[in-house]
Structures are given as structure tokens and as C-alpha cells.
Design brief:
Bound molecules: NADP nicotinamide-adenine-dinucleotide phosphate
Order of helices and strands: EHEEHEHEHHEEEEHE
Number of strands: 10
CATH class: Alpha Beta
Strand content: 15-25%
Number of helices: 6
Number of domains: 1
CATH topology: Rossmann fold
Radius of gyration: 16 Å
CATH superfamily: NAD(P)-binding Rossmann-like Domain
CATH architecture: 3-Layer(aba) Sandwich
Shape: globular
Helix content: 25-40%
Structural class: alpha/beta
Distance between the termini: 30 Å
Length: 212
């Protein structure tokens, strides 16, 4: 299996890269500074920016599967997913690559919070989504919209707050909305669940929420 990974140098992306290498996949990544990536010796690295169609095309060429854990590092407006995801979709369509599994976020859909207690929903919608999470959520909504409008076999895995803590004994999955009182998930469990989707059919052309 040839896999392209966007955002491989990030916290979740590195876990995805490790899991792909353990599975014996051939991995190509797009990174702005691959030399600083600890797994650089085990992958083919294209140096470039995810907002550059040429670099995106080069990354996807010959792939069977695309994974993305792309995200802006700052909370300011960067339009990263707004720009990069349509380019990834275009390159995949040109090269007839069908399967993409991405990290989204629990705020990516207007019905995301339907299972939350009213006070939590109010705080998220009236405070967090208007302040600290304004641009990350705007970007994730754009990613969801772009993938939904595509003809690709996409899966968007939508977590609440990501943690670097150890996996717990179990986590919840929901196709309709963030599980009630779901506040976090480890990046390790997120990456494990994304890897399960490589050969799974249940969540194709859908978003799916994951939370402890
Ligand atoms: N943090 C949370 O609590 C949380 C909650 C829900 C959802 N999410 C979503 O989860 C995803 C992953 O989060 P994370 O914390 O694991 O990510 P992260 O550590 O911030 O990594 C982001 C990755 O995106 C890459 N990237 C950023 N701009 C780029 C560009 N212009 N061109 C190429 N690559 C670029 C970074 O590369 P560099 O190494 O070059 O910077 C890095 O590899 C994000 O989409 C985020 O929105 C996060």
C-alpha cells in the first residue's frame, strides 16, 4: 500500500506515520521542513507547502490512500484547510486516487453538539466558537464541506480536544453527533481509529465522531 500523509510532522500525523510504517506501507509525506521530522529516514519526503498544487500533486502521485492530520498551529485565521483540502481533492481526482481519511473536529458540522447538555452547547456555540476556536472551527467546516461535495471515498474523523495521554480502555464512536459530555480523546486512539478505516467500509463518505 502506498500512502500519502499530509500533516505527518504534527502530533497526530506522526502517530499515523508510525502506524503506517508498522503496517508495512510505503509512506510519502509533504512537509515544509522534513529534515526536522524524526521519521524522515523512513519515508519519502516532498518538501513543500500544502497550499501549493504542484507539491500536493507530487505527494499524491501513485498513492492508494491519503491521510491528513493537517491543521494550522496558531488560532489565527490561516485558511489552511480552506486552501489545501480543495487542492488535495483536485490532485486525487486527477490521479484517480479515491480514499482519503482526515482528522476533522467536533465542531465541523452544525449538528455536532446535538447530544450535549444545553449549557455545554451554549458555551461552545456562544463563547468558544466565537473566540478561541473561531478560525479552527471555520476551517474544519470548510474541510467538511469540500469533502462532502467531492466524489471521493472520504472519512472525516471528528474529535473534541486532543490529548497526548495514554489510551483508555474504551472510547465512543457516533455517526450523528459528538457523544454526550465527550470532552477529549487521545491522539493515539484517534490514530488507531483512523487506521481501522483504511480497510473499513462503515464510515466511507461520512463524518464520524470519536470521544472518551
Ligand atoms: N488540538 C486539538 O485539541 C484539536 C481538537 C480537534 C481537532 N483538531 C484538529 O486535529 C488536527 C491535528 O491536530 P494536531 O494537534 O495533531 O496537529 P499539529 O501538531 O498542529 O500538526 C499540524 C500539521 O499540519 C502541518 N501544516 C500546517 N500548515 C501547513 C502547510 N501550510 N503546509 C504543510 N503542512 C502544514 C504541520 O506542519 P509543520 O510541522 O510544518 O508545522 C503539522 O504537520 C488539526 O486539523 C486540528 O484542527 C485538533
Amino acid at each position: 500500500m502506498n500512502v500519502s500523509i499530509f500533516g505527518a510532522t504534527g502530533a497526530t500525523g506522526k502517530l499515523l506515520t508510525e502506524r503506517c510504517l508498522s503496517a508495512g506501507y510505503t509512506v510519502r509525506i509533504l512537509a515544509r521542513d522534513p529534515r526536522s521530522f524524526s521519521l524522515a529516514g523512513y519515508v519519502e519526503a516532498i518538501t513543500g507547502d500544502a497550499r501549493d498544487l504542484t507539491a500536493v500533486r507530487q505527494t499524491i502521485r501513485g498513492s492508494d490512500l491519503v491521510l491528513s492530520a493537517l491543521g494550522a498551529k496558531s488560532w489565527k485565521r490561516e485558511d489552511l484547510l480552506e486552501t489545501a483540502v480543495p487542492l488535495i481533492i483536485t490532485a486525487m481526482q486527477e490521479q484517480k486516487v479515491r480514499r482519503i481519511i482526515v482528522v476533522g473536529s467536533a465542531g465541523a458540522v452544525s449538528t455536532s453538539l446535538d447530544k450535549q447538555p444545553a449549557y455545554r452547547r451554549w458555551i461552545a456555540e456562544n463563547i468558544l466558537y466565537k473566540t478561541a476556536l473561531k478560525w479552527p472551527v471555520t476551517s474544519q467546516r470548510a474541510q467538511y464541506k469540500a469533502l462532502s461535495a467531492s466524489n471521493l471515498d472520504w472519512t472525516m474523523v471528528m474529535p473534541p480536544m486532543l490529548r497526548d495521554s495514554a489510551p483508555r480502555r474504551s472510547y465512543r464512536i457516533d455517526g450523528e453527533a459528538l457523544p454526550r459530555n465527550g470532552v477529549g480523546i487521545s491522539r493515539a486512539e484517534l490514530a488507531d481509529f483512523m487506521m481501522l478505516q483504511v480497510n473499513g467500509a462503515e464510515w466511507v463518505r461520512r463524518g464520524v465522531y470519536i470521544s472518551w
